[in-house]
Each structure stands twice: as C-alpha cells, then as structure tokens.
Amino acid sequence: MKRIVLISALLLGGAVAHHALAQVPGGGGPQPGGGGAGGGTGVPVDGGASLLLASGVAYALKRLRGRKAAR
C-alpha cells in the first residue's frame, strides 16, 4: 500500500512540475509612473489590512477570555 501511494505521489509531482515549467512568463505588469496619487503604481492594501485587523481583534478577544477564565 505504501508503495502505491509513493508511486502515485511521484507521478502527480512530476505532472505538476511539468505543467509549471511549461508556463510562459507574463507581460511584466504595470510600469512605474502610472496612475497613483504619488505617481507610482497603485497597491491594493484594503483587503489585506482589514483581514489583519480582524485577526488581531479575534486574537485579543481570545487572550482576554483566557485571562478571565484563569482567575
């Protein structure tokens, strides 16, 4: 059974590696000096910042509840 799993994993890994190597590089992305307020390229940070803030609040609540239960 272990041999079948190992062979399957190797074949799947080889297929994934072959597919990854077959990809063509992209067009290079946006050029500096394009449409931002400061003249540079715009970076969307809203989604990541809100997820980071929400996870920080959840962690703080967990720590406060744990501290309250320890008393």
Main sheet: strands, sense, barrel: none
Kindly estimate the percentage of residues that lie in beta strands according to DSSP: under 5%
Low-confidence stretches: none
The best one-word shape is flat
- The percentage helix is 55-70%
The DSSP helix count reads 2
Short structural description:
This protein has 71 residues and is an all-alpha fold. The chain is flat and about 55 Å long.
Q: Would you write up a description of this structure?
A:
The structure is a single chain. With 71 residues, this protein is mainly α. It is built from two helices and no strands. The N and C termini lie far apart (51 Å). The mean pLDDT is 76.
Question: Tags for this entry?
Answer:
mainly alpha, 71 residues, 2 helices, 63% helix, single chain
What does the secondary structure layout of this molecule look like, with pairings?
Blueprint: H1 2-21, H2 46-70
